[in-house]
Amino acid sequence: MTERLQTDVLVVGGGGAGFRAAIGAREKGAEVTLVTKGPVARSGASPMAGADLTTHGQGMRAAGFFGEPRDSEETFLNDILHQGCYLNDQRLAEIYVRESPDRLLEMVEWGIKVSFTDERAVFTSGTSIMSTLHRQARQMGVNIVGDTAVLDLLVEDGRVAGALALDLRTGGFLAFDSKAVVLATGGWHRAYTPVTGSRELSGDGVAMALRAGAELANMEFVTFCNNVVYWPPMHAGSIFTYVLGLLCGGVLENSDGERVFAKYDPDMVAHASRTEWNKCFISYISAKEIQAGKGSPHDGVFYRVGDEPFEEFAERVRHHYPGWKYHSVDFSMVAEKLASGEGVEVGPAAEYFEGGVAVNERYEATVPGLFAAGECASSPFGANRVAAATMEMLVTGAKAGWSAAEYAEDAVSAAVDVAAAVEAATEPLRRDSGVAPAEVRRRLQAATQKNLGPIRTENDLKAYLSLLDDMKAAEITQLATRAQTRRYNMEWIEALDLRNMVQVLEASARAALARTESRGVHYRADNPTTDNEGWLKELIVRLNGGEFTIGTRPVNVTLASPPQGRRPYLAYIQQMMQGHSDIGGHH
Amino acid sequence: MGNTRVVNVLRFDPTVDEDPYYQAYDVPVVEDQSVLDVLDYIHDNLDGSLAYYGHAACHQGVCRRCLVIVNGKPSLACQTKVTGDLTLEPPDKLSVVRDLVFEKRTDRLPDGRGDA
Predict the structure, then answer these.
(1) Are the beta carbons of A436 and B56 separated by less than 8 Å?
(2) Coil, helix or strand for A181?
(3) Residue A232 and residue B31: Cβ atoms within 8 Å?
């Protein structure tokens, strides 16, 4: 039995982008249903964000905060293009810069809690952002459905007409007939280890869009947050040590006790240590130590206090985080490991996915009726994100929500037959024997972290793609659950997630293999040059009759011309850092 | 090392079982693990049929959906360090979806704090 529900605009995903899209579609008068796979208002990566909302100094002033008076739209844009290593779609970057002040102002008016500000950012928390958006969406009459996974888009006559979903608690199927769909399902953090976002982030929206015929862009670019906890296991995936490194200092050491920063240009280290360039640069240099066999026991590096006495360091920590509590979580275990000198094992962890569903200025995908926002859309940030993704989700969510509502005015819905899709989705429940989903997922996570991490090579990527081929042929088709129950069957959910993860990872690995240069967060050890003669273009991935095709399109350059020529990877990054304005702050 | 600990989990599928029952698992001792890490170990290595709020858990004390009774005390599984044998039960036995997963009123904020 499949229940059918009607709505004008269906929003898939319940993080910040999804909620802002739902509010946006309501603002234009559409009837809106938001479906989220996890807990209502606590889904996705948004609740775990630090979190800051970035805009330029003029936008800060317009929202009532101190803002650097010399800052402007042009300066902010200049910095975002340099941070993106000039691979940004400049039309999308311009939207981010121009619309971020309005999104900040409304969040203040809607009651967000502000803890402090810098030149270009208002610091709040991910939970405050989500609670604010959730309250606003409820007041505006958005229908919200939690603990429900959307499995596939429904396509009729070449346009998207709804989606098939599964209520995870009861195991019942729901078919949503809608005039437009906004995908806001975030990244595929779950494909890596450790996982920094919520575990439901398995690239579902990107995979569904791919299967529906949509183009994906920039899939090779993944931002790894540096200094994420690998060990102790209780805090694995936490960015607390990243935040400590940024605000309180500390050192990174390899297994020989060598200081990792000492090997690099002091100016680059200084710039990367005080801004969010750290995610690109420090993740890269940490991965180099790990690949050179100088990692910690759990394949990270050691985060330690350094030369100063622990008590002096701890004094600074207590100033920011009294009682070693960060967002109400007790990190005294981290304090003990720093005090003893043992240190915490940290390293790069997938945090933000630049790539995703290719969109135009309306945040419309290449399939009619389909829109995308937030991390699951291709980003305004090009090859490296420094400005806040939490602001991106608000700007792009609003944009996609408005566009979807406008599209829905003239569209009609269709009741697409879902019997075959339901039959396919229940296969893992009906197999008497087969492969355990968790076992496949663990192998996939380890292989992805190793081969599709901050450092890539042709050999590794080819071996990884062949592993994905084997998994597709022999395992994904043979996944079986131990229990046959439909009620909250985690193995069943994992089996459905794995299909999406493998498809998205194949798109990402194929793009990483095709980009035979290094740029931003994509470093190819066998092609260590940034090549502005040959590679100022985006890679576009599509699925055609089950086969991946990969093409290129030139970067949209509407405002600022990239520098010419080719440069070694780190020299180009240094050039990009030097191209940054003298506006301070973390961005 | 090489030690194990006993983890007793109260299991119940309201569509199949007449009454809840305890099932015991032997789990290897690993230092600095949380209760959620132990549940993951059981699910991934011993018994894939075990249900706890794992599919969208945040593991970082934020989503608060891994609330479980640990040795008689309501606790977040992801933020509770394991120190010995464990008995795990759902926080609200009347609204069990399956095993440790319970129905949550969605018209309230998941963290229950007065933010709304």
Answers:
(1) no
(2) strand
(3) yes
* Closest chain A C-alpha to B21 CA, distance in angstroms: 16
Q: Provide the ipTM.
A: 0.96
Query: Is residue B109 very low, low, confident or very high in pLDDT (cuts 50, 70, 90)?
Result: very low
Residue A475 lies in a domain: yes
Decide if A47 touches B, using CB distance below 8 A: yes
The domain tally of chain A equals 2
Q: How far apart are CA A551 and CA A572, in angstroms?
A: 25
Among candidates B56, B52, B97, B99, which has minimal Cα distance to B77?
Answer: B52
Cross-chain Cβ contact B33/A234 below 8 Å: yes
Residues 6+ apart with CB under 8 A from A311: none
Same domain, A527 and A428: yes
- Both A234 and A329 in a single domain? yes
Residue of B nearest to A233 (CA): B33
A430 & A522 share domain: yes
End of a domain among A324, A350, A376?
A: A350
Chain A positions in Cβ-Cβ contact with residue B60 (cut-off 8 Å): 48, 235, 237-238, 329
Chain B residue with Cα closest to A170: B97
- Sequence-distant (6+) residues with CB within 8 A of B66 are B35, B36, B52, B53, B54, B57, B76, B77, B78
* Cβ within 8 Å of B, A 154-183: 168-169
Residue A178 lies in a domain: no
| CB-based contact B106:A40 (threshold 8 Å) | yes
Among residues A250, A256, A255, A254, the alpha carbon closest in space to that of A273 is found at A250
- Are B34 and A146 in contact (CB < 8 Å)? no
Domain containing A498 equals 421-454+471-536
pLDDT band at A314; cut points 50, 70, 90: very high
Q: How far is it, in rounded angstroms, from Cα B50 to Cα A236? A: 22
* Residues of chain A contacting B43 with CB distance shorter than 8 Å: 438, 490
Chains A and B form CB pairs within 8 A to the count of 143
Q: Minimal Cα–Cα distance from A483 to chain B, Å?
A: 5
Of the three residues A350, A367, A399, the one that is the final residue of a domain is A350
Distance of residue B114 Cα from the nearest chain A Cα, in angstroms:
10
Rounded mean pLDDT, A578-582: 93
Let me know if residue A499 belongs to a domain: yes
- Statement to judge: residues A346 and A426 lie in one domain: no
Looking at the structure, tell me whether residues A227 and A341 fall in a common domain: yes
What 3-state DSSP class applies to B74?
A: strand
How many Å apart are CA A364 and CA A403, to the nearest integer? 7
Average pLDDT of chain A, as a whole number: 96
Measured between beta carbons, which residues in chain A are less than 8 angstroms from residue B104? 39, 146-147
